[in-house]
Amino acid sequence: MKLFSDLISAIEITNKTNAKIEALVSYFELAPDKDKLWLIALFTGKRPSRPVKTSLMKEWCMEITNLPEWLFLESYSTVGDLGETMALLLPEPTHKLDLSLYEWMTELKTLKPKSEDEKKAFVLEAWSGLDQQERLIFNKLIGGSFRIGISKKTLVNALAKLTNIDANQLMHSIIGNWDVDSITFEELIHGKHINYDNSKPYPFCLAYALEKELPELGKPSEWMVEQKWDGIRGQIVKRNNEIHIWSRGEELVSKQFPELVESMQNFKDDFVIDGEILALKDNNVLLFNDLQKRLNRKNVTKKLLEEVPIGFYAYDILEFNGKDIREQSFEKRRQQLEFIFNSTTLPKHIKLSFLVDFNTWDDLHDIRNDSRAINSEGLMLKQKKSPYHTGRKKGDWWKWKVEPLTIDAVMIYAQKGSGRRSSKYTDYTFAVKKNHTLVTVAKAYSGLTDKEITEISQWVNKNAIEKFGPVRTVKPELVFEIAFEGIALSNRHKSGVALRFPRISRWRKDKPVDEIDTIETVKALITSC
Description:
This protein is an alpha+beta fold. Helices cover 35% and strands 24% of the residues. Strands 4, 5, 6, 7, 8, 9 and 10 form a seven-stranded mixed sheet that branches. α2 (17-30) crosses α10 (152-163) and α5 crosses α6. The longest helix is centred in the first third of the chain and has 14 residues, at 17-30. The protein is globular, with a radius of gyration of 26 Å. It starts with a helix and ends with a helix.
C-alpha cells in the first residue's frame, strides 16, 4: 500500500502532465505485476462494486473519535472530501499493516457479502494499522474516486514510455474486456486478448484557431471549406470484416454506436475514415446536448436508439484497402472519399460532409455567421494540397468558429478547488433572474486571473451565508459575463436550459445585479442562434 500511497501523493502535488507520467512510470517499475493490474483497473473504470456503505464508515469514525455529528459535518464541509475527513480525524495507528494493493483489493472483494459486524471489524482493523495518507487511500479504495487528474490518456502515455509499445495499441488493450484475476500484466500490455492489427487507428490531424485575416491565406481557389460540426470526432476503421470506432480521446467507442458499426458493413472496401459522430434526426443535426444522452453508455437501449439516432459525417480518408494515403493531398483524398460514397448505397445517417460553395473570401463571412442555424460551430478551412498531419501543424487546417454567446449572471455559490487551489474558491455557480427570484443557469471555473481568484476568495470568506459541505452560498452581488458555445432546452436543469462549455468571460464590476439577464432573455438565445 505504501508504494501506491506514495504514487498518489506524488501525483496530487503537481498539475504537470509530464510529472504525473514520471510518477506512474516509477510506480510501474517497482510494483508487483498484480498491483500494476489493479492500478490500471482502478483508473479505467474496472473497480469492483462498493463493499461498505460510506454512511456506515461515517458512523464508525464518529464512534471512534467521540465527535458529535455537527462537528463531523463541520469538518467535512471544511475538507470537502469524506474519505479525507475520516483519515484526518481518526487517532494515530496502533500498529502497522503492510499489504500490497492487490492484497487489499482482494480483501475488499471478499468483504461485500459479509455481515455489518464483520465489515466494521475489518475497516476498524485497517484504520488502526494505516497512517493518515494510507487511510485516505484505503477509504478511496472502498468507494471514493481518485480525483487526481489521471486520465486514461495519461495512464497510457506512462505505459508507452515504460514499454515502448504504441500508445493506441495500449489504449485498445486496457479498455478491452479483461479481468485482473485472469490475465497477466505482460499479456495485458501486449494485447494478447485483442487483435490490434484490425483496429489500429491513426493519430488525428488537428486544426489551429484562425489567427489571421482570410486574404492572408492566399487564393480562395487553393482552399476547401466545410462546416465545423459540434459532435465527437471519430475514426471508423474497417479491416478484414471488423469495424472499430475510435474517439479523438483515443478511446474505443464502437459499442456506444451500434448503428454506425452496422451501417459500415454496406461498404465493400476496407478503409480508415475520419469524421464527426453526431446526433442526427430527420436529416438534421441535433445539438450536442442531445448527443450527450448517448455518451459513455454501457448498454444502448432500443428506446435510446430511437430517441437519439446517431449519424456520421465523413471528412477524410486515411487508409484505403490497406494502403496508408495520408501523404496524398487533401484534394486527392477527398476525391477518393467521394468515389467510395458515390459507389455505395448508404442509409441516410451516413453522409459525406458537404463542401461550402464560395468564390471569394467575403462570401464566407455570412456563411460562418449563419452556422448556428444548422447547429454548426463555424467553418473548417483546409488547404487543398495539405497531407493528413499527425497532430497540429500550423498553416494547413484552420478552424473559424462563430463568436461565443454571452449573458450577464450573478454568482450565488462558490466552492474551493483542489490541489494547489484547495485554499481558494475557484468553482462558481451563476444565476439569472426569474420573476422575483434567481435561478441557477451555469457552473464555471475558468476565465479568471490568479489575482481575481484571490480577490473573490477573500470576498467569499466575508460574505458567505450558508454552508452545504464544501459549497458556500454567497450574497448575490458579484456579476460576471458568461460566455458559451451553444444553448439548448433541458429538463435536467432548474432553469430549463443547458449551456455548452460555459466559462467566465470577464468580471463585470461595472454592472449592478439588477441589470443581469433574465431567464427569458437567456431562452431567447435558443431561437436567435
